[in-house]
Amino acid sequence: MRGNPCLLFVLILSTKCWSGDALESTPIHGREHIGGNLEEMMLVLRATVLEHAKQISQLKSENEQLWNHNENLRDDYKKMKYDFENMRKENENLKSSLQEHLRERDKLQLQLNVTEGRLQYLEAISLQITPRTCQTLADLGVTRTGEYFVDPDGALIGDAPIKVLCDMETDPVSTIVLHDSMGTTAIDRCADPGCYSHSIRAKLLPQTIQQNPVHLFAKQETLTLDII
User: Fold this and answer.
1) What is the pTM of this model?
2) Are 149 and 204 in contact (CB under 8 A)?
3) Are 89 and 19 part of one and the same domain?
4) 68 domain-assigned
5) Distance from C-alpha of 52 to C-alpha of 49, rounded to nearest angstrom
6) What are the tens digits of pLDDT across the range 137-183?
7) Is the Cα torsion angle 33, 35, 36, 41 positive or negative in sign?
8) Where does 14-161 show beta strands of DSSP type E?
9) Are residues 63 and 154 in the same domain?
């Protein structure tokens, strides 16, 4: 854009020089026609220069826009690079955390296996020292009512121990054989005596208990009837 005034000046100067020579060699009656052509050429040249200036200004504006766009792309690239680096570090942290969890899981699994082995060992020992009745447990200091294993015919003799309910709150302590109707059972209403029956199936009892009931302090069923 800076070169346009110089170019215009040169063109004007050359035009003036040409016009001066032309005027000297042109008859007087034709000089008016030459002056008119010179003015038209100056107008065309001026319009051309202005158009070029406008195009240069537009190119400069587009160049600035491209430069700004390039800077934006550069900033976006830096941001993406920064985000990628953060994601890479986070991925490494997750992998490290996962490996730590896997090691902790293997450690816990090993401890669980050891604990299960000890429980099986203790269970095997307990089968050898299982008491004959719930009263025996109470004599050993057990005070919590619950389900326990008892071995009426003695440890390592006859049948295996069975699970019973020891009621530690009774005196003497009750040994209750479990059955399939320990919970509340709904009874169908009927008017005549003996019109309703409900079978109660006790859990499988070893033959030893049936033959030696003396080891069980009590064997009874309590029925509670709520009459509506």
Assistant:
1) 0.35
2) no
3) yes
4) yes
5) 5
6) 888 888 889 888 888 887 667 777 888 889 999 988 988 887 656 56
7) positive
8) 146-150
9) no
